[in-house]
Write a structure and sequence with these properties.
CATH architecture: Sandwich
Structural class: alpha+beta
CATH superfamily: Jelly Rolls
Number of helices: 4
Strand content: 35-45%
CATH topology: Jelly Rolls
Shape: globular
Number of domains: 1
CATH class: Mainly Beta
Radius of gyration: 17 Å
Helix content: 10-25%
Largest sheet: 5 strands, antiparallel
Order of helices and strands: HHHHEEEEEEEEEE
């Protein structure tokens, strides 16, 4: 059983409860309401877990770029843990047909959502405009749904511990990433990627 695997990992009592509740939520139905039903479960994990619980202590101590904390063999979802130093960020991207929950255990990040307004829907030149930028302090979780274009950036001076819940294995699918083309929008930047011209790249 997948939940037995989670216990064997010994991530801690709060983490084991989180996995049990998430599996129960999956069994209740995998419809359009699932991200909203999953969100408070991750929020509770972030807000209630002490810093010395196994999973949180590991991320605070080792500060990994990315660490898989759990993968469910029955439902296919996974829980990733990340440490993002101040200023860390990436280019706009989506998660294809899947959805993701971004949550913050410590520190703070901002996430910018974009809309593709030029260049059609295929790979090639594209133009992105900014829809909204949201700040996620510790204990906050936000869902990003199928096809939503977004980019994250860590803004806490001490760095941020970020939990990324994936509804499925995104490494097994092709999806869009957007490479900035404008000269004033090249990494590294002091802020999130701007609206402007991009090259849409479709692949794994």
């Amino acid at each position: 059983m997948a939940i037995e695997q989670a216990s064997q990992l010994d991530r801690g009592a709060h983490f084991t409860r989180f996995v049990e509740q998430m599996r129960a939520t999956w069994r209740q139905g995998q419809d359009a309401t699932l991200p909203a039903r999953a969100q408070p479960l991750l929020e509770a994990l972030l807000r209630e877990s002490p810093r010395d619980e196994a999973w949180s202590a590991l991320l605070l101590r080792e500060q990994p770029v990315g660490r898989e904390l759990y993968r469910d063999s029955d439902f296919g979802f996974s829980q990733m843990g990340h440490y993002h130093p101040a200023g860390h960020g990436g280019s706009p991207h989506d998660h294809g047909p899947y959805w993701v929950l971004y949550g913050v255990y410590s520190g703070e990040i901002e996430i910018t959502r974009y809309r593709r307004v030029g260049g059609g829907t295929e790979a090639g030149p594209a133009r992105l405009e900014i829809v909204a930028t949201e700040r996620l302090p510790a204990g906050t979780v936000k869902p990003y749904l199928r096809g939503e274009i977004h980019a994250t950036r860590a803004i806490a001076p001490e760095g941020s511990v970020v939990m990324r819940f994936l509804s499925a294995d995104i490494d097994q699918i092709e999806r869009f990433r957007y490479k900035p083309l404008d000269r004033d929008n090249q990494p590294p930047t002091t802020g999130s990627p701007k609206a402007g011209n991009y090259q849409a790249i479709f692949g794994r």
